[in-house]
Design a protein that fits this description.
Mean pLDDT: 82
Structural class: alpha+beta
Number of helices: 24
């Protein structure tokens, strides 16, 4: 191994002793930083995804540029024979070259390490995902460098080696993509999908180190290093000799093993989930549900034997989840995989269960073809069944299967009711939420404006979403009596009326806003704005539309550790009002759920909400604003002491109080969740902010004490906001990376080259002096 490290150090030193290496490093880092910062601050997410989405395509040209002369120049100048005449073996020479080139590209990647530091300052990135992304990048580099050395061993010309290396890498990247596969015969789609680089890299970069992906990159490197080794010895051995024949057989065997391992290694078990929320590992709630099964649950996976390219990776993820369910089911979960397109009996079974084929567009060699395929799941237990007709997203599959198992094995189904009759948001406004609730609960509607209105004490939770008309004494009494009987409420308050036609807002003037005070929470008559943590809005211009930050569209943050917000990183609350917690009975426990950043204020009275209008504010008044709170022990009785705050405009006491957890202790008689916004769950916003739906569903689960499901759903990834204290700090980080890091490499190179030239002159001067002394 000492010879390998010697060659590697020589190779690495050769790069850093030549200006071309520094040019490559500066170009590589400059391109990466340029494209990263074009979108990173725009999306405002503490993630390296914009960097790694393009990294493989940048490496497509960078790696061949680095490796093109590694062996080609040795052959052209004849130094290969000189080197191998020393006591060093050919495989040691090749491995030394390989290690040196991988190390050089890895050093280039280290130039991006300031980006995770920047994200840690401005946000809360998922450290596990960042680690996985860099591990995946190193694996990708290891495979690409082997391809580059193969191309360099193939020829004596660097340019030819660059073109060949780029072409081979491009083919390996494209064979796993839908663009290429949809034009190929169906029997070839599956094998090619197993050999593509991009799906493997994407899988690791999402935060999962899968043994199958490690095998892929290791076999890719081994196969092309074996080919490069064969090319090195091809001209040094007699083609008729037994040694050369054994070399060909050994090379072919290594390549065949690499191909076989990837074509037939899909069932290799073993993976490490590095994500902070363990997104790709069964949660404790799922294990609890599976561990509580007392009879056999059968899961049937209906899938086509020949799926289109775009569903191959998803099929693998589905099978991983099913294997985990089977494992933790401890004999009470049986997974059956059938192909309806290959069996008439399986086709009829799928149709009876309500799983119909879906149509796929497949581009043939001469025409666009429409084919049918299956990708559905059916769970059966004790004669009942729950069906997922089509698995469109494997990320939510664990929750879907766990909730199906929970629903099938429960003896009763909880009921959730929407309260209407006073201008509240209904199931029609919240159709996405209502549909998702219907998968677990029985959803109904109660109109409290009817003369015979009543709330059945058997209702597990009620949703009161933004009442805009006055609530008179009777509906208030009905809700109070319901809560006194251990009732649960999800109350979404509105402190201001927003007129979208005139882009104007004013405080709610009727008596519905004070309804939540019986819970110990006041919805203030204001709108909260956040100067740092907000969403952007597209504004039409005279020629082009432009995007501006909109402070009234809050990118709100979890206020602390609670089962409802666990695993969620941010929320999108448009036109929200602040909350105040009031001094009430001693048996109520308040837990803040959602808050703004420290750069939030509020506007009261009547004011404009145009996105291009300046918001008047005093910097000294910016502070975190409470937007959602959970209340336990919320008996529907009036406060027993005077309220300590006032919501009158201009009153300094009206600032909201952010209470610590467990402000008071006492018996928990009921549960209430209060949010100062009812717009965040309408379909328009919930469709683009899935984290809002997760929060609402978690709140209902917490209210109904279905906490096993709550823990499963909370695993879903949500945006992690990237917000800096000032625009100066944001720009500073940008230019430190974009200019500072490449400049540091340039300065290091200039210093190294200067010292090297000075040492060379000293050597020549010493040699000349020695020669003159000898002549004398």
């Amino acid at each position: 191994m000492s010879n390998v490290w010697t060659i590697a150090r020589k190779e690495l030193r050769g790069y850093f002793d030549h200006p071309t290496a520094y040019i490559l490093l500066v170009v590589f880092l400059g391109i990466n930083f340029f494209f990263y910062f074009r979108s990173a601050f725009l999306i405002g997410e503490a993630s390296l995804r914009p960097l790694f989405d393009l990294l493989s395509w940048i490496l497509l040209f960078f790696v061949p540029a680095v490796t093109m002369g590694a062996l080609a120049e040795e052959k052209r100048h004849g130094t290969l024979e000189v080197t191998l005449s020393h006591p060093i073996r050919e495989h040691e020479f090749l491995l030394g070259k390989y290690v040196g080139n991988v190390t050089f590209v890895a050093i280039a990647l280290t130039g991006t390490l300031l980006l995770p530091m920047m994200l840690a300052v401005g946000g809360d990135p998922d450290g596990g995902v960042v680690v996985a992304q860099y591990i995946g990048s190193l694996l990708l580099v290891a495979g690409m460098v082997a391809v580059g050395l193969f191309a360099s061993a193939l020829t004596r010309n660097q340019i030819t080696a660059f073109i060949v290396g780029t072409a081979v890498m491009f083919i390996l990247m494209m064979v796993g993509t839908e663009v290429v596969q949809i034009g190929m015969p169906s029997w070839l789609v599956g094998p090619l999908g197993q050999l593509g680089i991009l799906p493997r890299f994407a899988n690791v970069a999402r935060g999962v180190i899968d043994l199958r992906d490690l095998v892929y990159f290791a076999s890719l490197a081994a196969a092309f290093l074996a080919l490069a080794y064969w090319l090195l010895l091809r001209d040094r051995l007699s083609h008729g000799s037994r040694l050369y024949r054994n070399l060909r057989i050994g090379t072919a065997t290594i390549v065949a093993i690499a191909v076989f391992a990837n074509l037939f290694g899909r069932h290799i078990p073993g993976r490490v989930d590095l994500t902070s929320n363990r997104l790709y590992t069964l949660s404790d709630g799922t294990r609890q549900i599976l561990g509580g099964l007392n009879d056999l649950v059968t899961i049937t996976f209906f899938t086509s034997s020949e799926l289109p390219a775009q569903f191959r990776l998803m099929e693998r993820d589905v099978n991983d989840v099913l294997r985990d369910f089977e494992r933790f089911g401890r004999g009470n979960v049986q997974v059956v995989r059938v192909h309806p397109d290959a069996s008439e009996e399986a086709r009829q079974e799928a149709q009876q269960l309500g799983i119909a084929p879906v149509q796929f567009n497949v581009i043939g060699q001469e025409e666009l073809q429409v084919k049918q395929g299956w990708m559905g799941l059916a769970m059966q237990y004790a004669g009942a069944s729950e069906v997922i007709p089509f698995v469109g997203n494997a990320a939510n599959l664990e929750y879907q299967l766990a909730s199906n198992a929970w629903r099938l094995t429960r003896t009763d189904t909880a009921t959730v009711a929407f309260i209407i009759g006073h201008g509240e948001r209904s199931r029609t406004d919240y159709s996405l939420l209502a549909r998702l609730l219907g998968e677990t609960y029985e959803v109904t509607t109660i109109d409290l404006s009817a003369e015979d209105a009543a709330i059945d004490p058997g209702i597990d939770a009620v949703i009161i979403a933004g009442p805009r008309d006055p609530l008179d004494a009777r509906p208030r009494q009905l809700i109070r009596e319901y809560l006194q009987n251990d009732g649960r409420a999800f109350y979404l308050g509105e402190g201001a009326d927003v007129n979208l036609q005139y882009l104007f807002a004013s405080a709610v003037s009727d008596s519905s806003r004070d309804f939540s005070e019986q819970f110990g929470v006041r919805v203030n008559g204001d709108l909260v704005f956040d100067m740092r943590s907000n969403e952007s809005m597209q504004v039409p211009g005279e020629v082009y539309n432009y995007i501006v930050p909109y402070p009234f569209w809050l990118r709100a943050l979890p206020a602390g550790e609670h089962a409802i917000t666990r695993g969620l990183n941010s929320f999108f609350l448009p036109w929200a009002s602040s909350l105040d917690t009031l001094v009430t009975r001693s048996d109520r426990v308040f837990t803040p759920l959602i808050t703004t950043s420290p750069y939030a204020g509020r506007q009261m009275g009547a004011f404009q909400i145009r996105p291009d209008a300046d918001i008047p504010f005093n910097t000294d008044e910016l502070q975190p604003r409470l937007l959602a709170v959970a209340v336990q022990g919320a008996v529907g009785a009036a406060p027993t002491v005077p309220l300590p705050v006032s919501s009158e405009p201009g009153d300094s006491a009206a600032e909201p109080q952010l209470l610590e957890r467990n402000v008071s202790a006492g018996p928990a008689v009921g549960r209430v969740v209060v949010v100062g916004d009812s717009d965040f769950l309408i379909d328009q916003f919930a469709r683009s902010a899935q984290e809002n739906l997760v929060f609402a569903l978690n709140a209902i689960d917490w209210l109904t004490q279905s906490e096993a499901l709550l823990g499963i759903r909370s695993k879903q990834s949500s945006p992690r906001p990237l917000r800096f204290e000032s625009s100066f700090e944001q720009r500073a980080w940008k230019y430190i990376n974009l200019i500072g890091v490449p400049l540091a490499f340039v300065l290091f190179g200039a210093l190294r080259l200067f010292r090297r030239r000075r040492m060379t002159r000293q050597t020549y001067a010493f040699a000349a002096g020695t020669q003159e002394a000898g002549e004398e």
